[in-house]
## 1
Amino acid sequence: MIVDVNVNLSRWPFRRLPHDETSRLVKKLQQCGVSQAWAGSFDGVLHRDIADVNRRLSEDCRRHGDGLLLPVGSVNPSLPDWEEDVRRCAEDHRMKVIRLHPNYHGYGFDSDLCDQLLAEAQRFRLIVQVALKMEDVRTNHPLMVVPTVDATPLAALVKRHPNVPLIVMNNYGSVRGDAAAQLAEAGNVYFENSHAEQVGALEKLTKDVPLERLLFGSHFPFFNLEASLFKFRESALGGAITEAIQHKNAEELLGDR
Amino acid sequence: MDRRFFLEAATVASASSLLTSRQLLAELAPTNGDDIWDLHCHFSGVVGETPADRVEKIVEYADRMAIHRLIFFMGWPWSTAPKPDEFRRQNDQVLDALSKWGHRIFGFAYLNGHHPEESLAEIERCVAEGPMIGVKLWVARKCSEEALDPIIKRCGELQAAIYQHTWLKTQGNGPGESTPMDLAILAARHPNVPIICGHTGGDWTRGIRAVRAAKNVSIGIGGSEPTAGFVEMAVRELGAERVIYGSDAGGRSFSSQLAKVYGAEISEAGRRQILGGNLRRMLTPILRSKGVNV
């Protein structure tokens, strides 16, 4: 049983991916033992009609996978009336999680918008996911260079919103060792393993971050799903730790939302 | 081997060309005849006083992933433009590791194209007269420059492998950092010498195209994010026989890099070529000349 908190539907704007059709994506997730996938939409990165992105996503998740896909709404607080998008995610689509892309949407963690957004998230009891990046910045399209989100102001932000669960995603060295531990202590912060690198990456991650704050994430279908799966083989974690990361922590986080 | 995860994760196979978790387990099991060779390893990502200490730790992880042979190059700390004394010191670190781990690892000699004479001497010391079987060129000098020709020629004579780092950074490469286009220029001057295009330029969508016409160039797929579709495009455009698995461990995990191959929708025969067959074929002549039975 695996709960994958980092999946996207629809199309990556710059190339086709082998599993970017929802039916094929679902099949692959099932074959690899994923029992629940928290699915956002690639469309949420660049589209400005976010309301329609979330409507389509919600519909796709209902239509495919027999409950496998948990829709994760996109919110862009730089758009007019973004608060209505949050409300629709929570009330109309019954979403439990929203996803942010601060670097693509042009704001930082020190922006007032972030405070407003986390306050809205708390109001609707939403879990907030933050994607620090979507791809290696060295391979960005030359007409669209998007630096990784600066995570430095995140500690202060989560301290101001201790009741909002926040999942740091696609973290390739942006928040390292001690900083990750401090973030986990400062707020209700979680990390997923899609970008954990180095040999024995998960062993190292479990030393840096409290076990209860670690989740399974794949960044599938942009990444090969096997990358996150194999890390459990490469690191000798033991059954209880593996279970906590692969599903129990996510299940508890989702709880009665 | 810890198989529990895959056994727990396994689901009933359905009619599909995709691997199921059970098949993944089987593919990774060392008993099935798979022979994974890793083109690209360093002494990084682990701690240890000596190179051999570090290799011991990296091999522990490699064993869990059923990787049979590993190629190491460069020592520590990193040096992007090493003077001859420095690349000799780093090669001594590799030689030290080889003396204890020669049954599991191979070594490539680290060179600097800005010092062609000293680099040639290092090829003699480490490869012609020593146990190493290839060379590594990093970011000191663009490989398109003709000053590198004597190095390539000598490697060709020895049938030593040539691993040239390449990247195609949107923000711009470093001053001596080669692109796959640079490598294609070099390869055209040495059409009978096999050369490996390290990282496939990072941006593999362009890197694969850049070396497509250079039939003596293979690509190394290690040392980049495990982006889906990489290996499929490489096999489609180059053929599986020109694609070589490597990890860039310990900075990268074996998992993320193996996933590029195991996650790719390619034939089983192609997968085996990429995971070890191609590298073994390339290295067999020089290994035999050194009395190594492969």
## 2
Amino acid sequence: MKNFDFWIRRIHSLSGVIALGAFLLEHIFTVSTVMGGPANFDKSVAALAAMPFLVPIEIIAIGLPIAFHGILGVVYALKAKNNPLRYGYWNNWMFYLQRITAYIAFIFIIWHVWTLRIVGKAMGGHLIGYDFMHKVLSDPLTFGFYVIGLLSSVFHFTNGLFGFSITWGIVSGPRGQRVVSIATLALFVLISSVGLTALTHFVK
Amino acid sequence: MAETKKKVHFIIERQDGPNSQPYTEEFEVDYRPALNVVASLMEIQKNPVTKDGKKTTAVVWECNCLEKVCGACMMVINGKAQQACAALIDHLEQPIRLTAARTFPVVRDLMIDRSVMFESLKKIHGWVDVDGTWEVHNDAPRQNPKTATIAYEISRCMTCGCCMDACPNVNQSSEFIGPAPMAQAHLFNLHPIGEYQKEERLDALMEKGGLASCGNSQNCVQACPKEIKLTEYIAKLNRDTNKQALRNLFNK
């Protein structure tokens, strides 16, 4: 196929926002319903579980894009010679952090899906709900890993939007890029605040 | 009373040949006002004796114009790739560490082989085809003066390779052609005759190791000694290649 490598890279970028980004937002939104009380959270989990074609949707719309974006991303990231200590510019640190948070999020997501969705729900037959999450997150080490995983995923997504806006030629000039850079940083603070607040509600 | 002369302390990474192991040697050069790195290397060449008084071979480097126009003397000075002729000792922290820009194959000491950049210029069709259908001075297509201003800025690229060394995605294990050749593709796409080959250039940029390998670290725009707005042109090329990719997909 003509432009094969180009399209793979572009789909990599697109999958990060359309599949992974959209799911991340939905996920944090659903989890945040815990702020309205444990019953509220259980209700929204039940609503999602009642979705038709749930497993195919989980695999095709979430699982495969995550695997594609993650595995390809690691291959790309490993080719870089990171040099923020030599070239300590803001954007270079962001470039470096984008890769570090990617590795963390990659491991966190595999562990998160494995322990909850596969071992917890599918194999163990646990009902994923407030009680189960309360038990899981009451362990301070697990809670800490969730905080790191959440912050890494959200950073990777919001900072990824900055790269996305350039990859797709949406902004080109220095002013436009600065505006997007600040906006995505603000989005990071906003989304991670929501996520962290939701997390603390599980251990209250 | 004898005045102790102010010295400039250099730590230089040396390498005897393309496949030899690098090692460092230290040198001291007499300070004088407005001294730069190239002039210091000339002093070392005149008297190749290390700081400890050991006689050694002269340090090899390249230079030509001595006014930041040719790009030949690019090397890594205190960690950053730059032109040695424009690197004033007064602006540098001592000891001054000189290394070759190891993004490129090292020929000897500070001398590198930049031919990969010229190969990339060939790949992206970095020239204007003159096919003889116009008389050169009559009725040639005109360029908007505003576009000409941008073209002038990009045309000052001297293929020095600072952007290539600063870029984390340009290295021996990656196929990425780097910022400089991409900006040149944009330059020739802006040209009223050059744009006839715009499609070929964009197609070349969509090959493996092309534009899509850019990771947006934006080091290139900081490192460029000619202040070419590389990231801006990369973003514009992103827009152009996306359109071209869609045209290739749906119009062909």
